[in-house]
Design a protein that fits this description.
The complex is a heterodimer of chains A (246) and B (389).
Chain A (H helix, E strand, L loop, with lengths): L1 E10 L4 E11 L3 E6 L6 H8 L7 E6 L8 H7 E4 L11 H11 L4 H14 L15 H12 L6 E5 L7 H16 L3 E6 L2 H7 L2 E6 L2 E6 L1 H8 L4 H9 L8
Chain B lengths: L1 H12 L2 H35 L3 E5 L5 H9 L3 E3 L5 H6 L5 E5 L3 H7 L5 E5 L6 H26 L20 H8 L3 H26 L3 H5 L5 H32 L3 H4 L7 H28 L3 H11 L4 H9 L14 H11 L6 H25 L3 H5 L3
Parallel strand pairs in B: 1-2, 1-3
Antiparallel strand pairs in B: 3-4
Helix pairs in contact in B: 1-10, 2-8, 2-10, 8-10, 8-12, 8-13, 8-14, 8-15, 10-12, 10-16, 12-13, 12-15, 12-16
The chains are: A alpha/beta (246), B mainly alpha (389).
């Protein structure tokens, strides 16, 4: 479970405010979507959660752990698929995943066993032992997800996971995320794609210009905005259609 | 930390470019260039000393006796070019001898007879030739003066108040050492070249691949990630150093040392000591290059910095080349300089001063560890992680 309260982050010595007053709660066994136009501050929020950035103000808890006080504990509790999904081209998919398993401090048997399971769930059998050079976007995302979840974290953060994926892979990815929810994990994904949120998320947090513009289930958001589809509701709630098309 | 190390080693061993540049070209380049250079220099020198001297002479008719002497000494007298000064300037001739028209008059009157040697002394390769011509002319001059003194009943030794003999105490090893002044430079450059690619790939390359951010999300203190990369880079630098030294030992075998009348004291024992001596430089180079490459946004940018860093090991080498002085204790405390002077001591075959060796290794190691510590803190800077965004 993630609790964020009043997060604020500025860059360039306070001149650029990336995140201003972001608060939300993401519960276990649910998929929480951070929805917002480009430049709304989604990746910045996530980066504060996984300790790559220090917030200027506000507090966070992941399963009761404070990322600022115990960064290493947080990194064990979280599985993160950031927007940067660079793989090591000269290593095979299996070696890429195994490297992260070792960095997580897992033993060899556990790593092998989890790679086998992950390979099955994510349907990676055909390319698991190939070098990742020349992999398609879909294959890369699968490897990135597998290596991020090798330590079976309770909380999973994904930054724009369906970026650059084709329809089939996106469907498979959604199925996988729903499975994580069924297992009772806390899944948070950031996206600017409306359909994704509508199809997947139990709880939606709309972020615009560094602030939380609205929060709730899809139905709640529709009711509050008085519109009959999520896209109109979204435009209404953030107050403009800026950045939506990007 | 060891996971990072193991992964970087595996990853880079699979990179053909790394294998080529680090493990093949890097170690071979130095010895090959060096061997070719040395054998070229020696063969040139011997050629110049032994080849028949061709000397264009202006006004040969004014001094037939001198010309006769030169020809007896084996000098080939040639017709002068039309424009002797121009010919020398254009480097068509190395040297031209001009015998002035009043040579004969001066000679018969017993005055010093004028001769002119036209040459460009700024051209290094003419040095030997000028010396040879002067040698012949001085020989002729002293022969004539002795004859003249004897005619007047004076013992020629009266004009030689001093007899100077140089007792050359240089051993074949120490003469070889002079030729080897370039050796430390090639060894040091091998170390830097060996770590260059790896340092770039593991830092700037990681960022360019966009794999740095996910890597840092792993539960591992940042300095350990850096330390793993640093160790892997150092390992490659050490490999290059070792291979390079082995290549040098073999390359020395091909040198015409017999012609040069000198022995190069570079066997495996000396190479082993040199390895020990230079190995702290591997860590130093790795840390320095990693610090630099970490600041670069891309592989290309990093490489352009590297080009400049590679000049650093040149500075002490060239200083020694220009101003060869005796090794003093303070020199052995200066990293890079100390390796230079001590390698020279080693190949000159002088007994190893263990204290100096210790000074050099510990001072270099100290600086290397300092740089490594700086490198270790680099990934704590958010700027370094996100500048690619």
């Amino acid at each position: 479970m993630i609790e964020a309260r009043g997060l604020r982050k500025t860059f360039n010595k306070g001149k650029v405010v990336a995140v201003d007053e972001v608060s939300f709660t993401a519960r276990d066994g649910r998929i929480t979507g951070l929805l917002g136009p480009n430049g709304a501050g989604k990746p910045t929020t996530l980066r504060m959660l996984y300790t790559l950035l220090k917030p200027d103000a506000g507090s966070m808890r992941v399963d009761g752990i404070d990322p600022e006080a115990e960064p290493l504990q947080i990194k064990r509790a979280l599985g993160v698929v950031p927007d940067s999904r660079g793989l090591y081209d000269r290593l095979s998919a299996r070696e890429n995943i195994r490297y992260y398993g070792r960095l997580q401090g897992l033993d060899k048997a556990t790593i092998d066993q989890r790679i086998a399971r992950m390979s099955e769930v994510l349907d990676m059998g055909a390319f698991i032992d190939r070098r990742t050079e020349g992999f398609s976007q879909g294959q890369r995302v699968k490897v990135a997800i597998a290596r991020a979840l090798i330590h079976e974290p309770r909380t999973v953060l994904l930054d724009e996971p369906s970026n650059g994926l084709d329809v089939m892979t996106t469907r498979a990815l959604r199925g996988f995320l729903q499975q994580l929810r069924t297992e009772g994990r806390c899944v948070v994904l950031s996206t600017h794609i409306m359909q994704e949120v509508a199809a997947l998320c139990d709880h939606i947090v709309i972020i615009a210009k560094g602030r939380v513009a609205a929060e709730g289930t899809a139905d709640e958001l529709l009711r509050r905005s008085g519109r009959d589809n999520l896209e109109d509701a979204f435009v209404h709630l953030i107050g403009s259609d800026e950045g939506l098309l990007a | 930390m060891m996971s990072v190390f193991a992964k970087e080693v595996l990853d880079n061993f699979r990179d053909r470019r790394v294998i080529l540049s680090t493990l093949i070209l890097g170690p071979l380049l130095g010895p090959v260039i060096f061997a070719v250079m040395i054998s070229f220099m020696t063969s040139q020198a011997t050629e110049r000393m032994e080849a028949p001297l061709e000397l264009p002479v202006i006004g040969a008719e004014h001094a037939p006796a001198l010309i006769g002497f030169l020809e007896r000494e084996g000098v080939i007298i040639q017709d002068p070019p039309d424009d002797p000064e121009g010919a020398v300037r254009r480097e068509e001739e190395e040297i031209v001898l001009r015998i002035a028209a009043d040579f004969g008059d001066a000679w018969t009157e017993g005055r010093p007879a004028p001769l002119e040697l036209i040459a460009d002394q700024s051209l290094r390769y003419t040095g030997t030739t000028i010396a040879r011509v002067r040698g012949y002319l001085n020989g002729y001059s002293s022969q004539i003066s002795q004859n003249r003194l004897q005619l007047r009943g004076v013992h020629p030794d009266i004009t030689r108040p001093l007899q100077i003999t140089v007792v050359d105490l240089s051993t074949p090893e120490s003469r070889g050492g002079m030729m080897l002044a370039f050796l430390p430079y090639f060894i040091m450059i091998a170390v830097f070249m060996g770590s260059m690619h790896m340092a770039t790939d593991t830092t700037a390359g990681e960022r360019e691949r966009r794999s740095l951010e996910p890597l840092l999300i792993n539960p591992l203190p940042r300095w350990q990630i850096m330390a793993g990369k640093l160790l892997a880079t150092t390992l490659f630098a050490l490999l290059t150093l070792g291979l390079s030294l082995i290549a040098f030992v073999y390359a020395m075998g091909f040198l015409p040392t017999a012609d040069m009348d000198m022995a190069l004291n570079l066997d495996f024992r000396v190479a082993g000591l040199a390895f020990l001596l230079v190995s702290p430089v591997a860590l130093l180079a790795a840390a320095l290059l990693i610090i630099l490459a970490s600041f670069a946004k891309s592989y290309r940018e990093a490489q352009s910095y590297m080009g400049m860093v590679i000049l650093i090991p040149m500075i002490p080498s060239f200083w020694i080349l220009i101003d060869p002085t005796r090794t003093e204790t303070w020199m052995t405390l200066v990293p890079l300089l100390s390796q230079n002077v001590l390698i020279l001591e080693l190949v000159r075959g002088e007994p190893v001063n263990l204290l100096w060796l210790l000074y050099s290794i510990s001072s270099t190691l100290l600086l290397a560890l300092l740089l490594a510590a700086i490198a270790g803190t680099l990934y704590n800077r958010p700027k370094l992680i996100f500048t690619s965004d």
